[in-house]
C-alpha cells in the first residue's frame, strides 16, 4: 500500500466511510455498498397526529360522516408534502376541469364508475381498484357515469394549487391568493416506460397475476403497490423503521394490513382503509387476516428514494 493509499484509508476509518473497491473486470457487477450506519435524528417525542390525520381512517367511519349526502369530500391526509381526500360524486355529476402546475395527481377509484378525460389522452372509464396518474399541467375532468355514486381517493402535492381554463368563469377566492390570467410555461407532463395513465389493479395484478410495484415514482410523489400473503404478526420487539424527513401512509387495496406504529395499539385494517405513520414514528406494516390470504398496501410518500432508519440489530430489514 502506498503512502497516499494509507492516508486515504486512515481518513476513511476516521470518518466512518467506505472506500470503493478497485474497478471490476468488464461484465462483473459491483457488490452493493454496505448500509450507512449514522447518528440519525428522530423526533422526541414523535409528532402527534393532527386533524384530519389519523393512524387509522376506516372507510366505514368516512361513509358514516357523510351518510345521506349525495356529493361530498372528506379530508384525510394533511402533511407538509402531500394532501389526500376521499370524494363521492353522484351519478351524472362531474368535476370542474382543472390542472395542477408542478406535480402529478394520483387517484384510486373504489366504488362506482368514473369517466376520466385528460388532455392528450383517450377518455377511459375507471372502476374499483383503478389507479390513475394525471401528469402536471394536464387539464382533467372526472365524471360519475355509473348507476351508483363514484367514490375515489385523490392525492396531490401539498404545494400545488389548481389551475383553471382561461375560458372558464373566475375561480372562487382562496384566502391569501388572487387568481390572474397568465401564460404558464414548461409544457405538460407525460408518461414513460414506468408511468402510464392508469392501472387496473384488480384486473391486471389480482386477476392476471402481473407483478405489482411503483405506479408513480416522481418528484414529490411515490405510489407503490406492495403485495404479499398474510403471515403471523411479528413480535412487538420488531420495531420496523422510521423516516427522518417525511410522513408515510398506505391505502389498503386488498385483504388486510396490520400496522404497529409508535404511540398506538397494533391494529389490522381492511380494504379501503387508510393508515399512516407520522415523520419520526417507528412503524411496521405486515399482511394480516387469515394466513395465506393475499393482501396489498399502496405505500404513499413524497420520496421514491426515501431513507429508512432501522435498529442496528435488524441489519436493515423489517
TrEMBL record:
Keywords (A to Z) from UniProt: Signal
SUPFAM superfamilies: RmlC-like cupins (SSF51182)
Region (Disordered): 30-51
Entry-linked Gene3D superfamilies: Jelly Rolls
Residues in Cupin type-2 domain copies: 240-286
Entry-linked Pfam families: Cupin_2
Span of the signal peptide: 1-25
Protein name as it appears in the record: Cupin type-2 domain-containing protein
Species annotation: Sphingomonas spermidinifaciens
Amino acid at each position: 500500500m502506498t503512502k497516499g493509499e494509507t492516508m486515504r484509508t486512515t481518513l476513511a476509518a476516521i470518518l466512518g466511510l467506505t472506500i470503493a473497491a478497485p474497478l471490476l473486470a468488464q461484465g462483473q457487477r459491483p457488490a452493493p455498498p454496505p448500509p450507512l450506519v449514522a447518528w440519525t435524528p428522530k423526533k422526541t417525542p414523535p409528532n402527534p397526529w393532527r386533524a384530519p390525520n389519523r393512524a387509522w381512517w376506516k372507510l366505514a367511519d368516512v361513509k358514516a360522516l357523510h351518510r345521506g349526502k349525495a356529493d361530498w369530500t372528506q379530508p384525510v391526509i394533511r402533511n407538509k408534502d402531500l394532501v389526500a381526500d376521499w370524494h363521492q360524486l353522484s351519478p351524472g355529476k362531474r368535476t370542474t376541469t382543472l390542472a395542477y402546475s408542478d406535480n402529478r395527481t394520483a387517484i384510486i377509484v373504489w366504488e362506482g364508475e368514473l369517466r376520466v378525460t385528460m388532455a392528450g389522452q383517450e377518455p377511459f372509464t375507471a372502476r374499483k381498484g383503478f389507479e390513475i396518474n394525471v401528469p402536471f399541467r394536464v387539464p382533467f375532468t372526472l365524471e360519475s357515469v355509473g348507476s351508483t355514486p363514484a367514490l375515489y381517493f385523490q392525492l396531490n402535492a401539498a404545494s400545488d394549487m389548481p389551475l383553471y381554463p382561461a375560458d372558464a368563469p373566475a375561480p372562487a377566492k382562496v384566502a391569501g391568493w388572487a387568481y390572474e390570467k397568465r401564460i404558464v410555461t414548461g409544457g405538460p407532463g407525460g408518461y414513460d416506460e414506468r408511468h402510464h395513465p392508469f392501472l387496473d389493479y384488480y384486473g391486471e395484478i389480482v386477476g392476471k397475476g402481473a407483478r405489482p410495484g411503483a405506479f408513480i415514482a416522481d418528484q414529490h410523489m411515490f405510489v407503490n403497490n406492495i403485495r404479499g400473503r398474510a403471515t403471523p404478526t411479528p413480535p412487538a420487539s420488531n420495531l420496523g423503521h422510521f423516516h427522518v424527513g417525511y410522513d408515510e401512509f398506505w391505502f389498503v387495496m386488498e385483504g388486510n394490513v396490520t400496522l404497529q406504529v409508535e404511540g398506538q395499539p397494533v391494529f389490522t385494517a381492511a380494504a379501503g382503509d387508510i393508515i399512516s405513520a407520522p415523520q419520526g414514528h417507528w412503524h411496521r406494516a405486515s399482511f394480516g387476516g387469515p394466513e395465506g390470504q393475499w393482501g396489498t398496501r399502496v405505500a404513499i410518500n413524497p420520496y421514491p428514494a426515501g431513507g429508512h432508519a432501522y435498529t442496528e440489530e435488524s441489519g436493515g430489514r423489517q
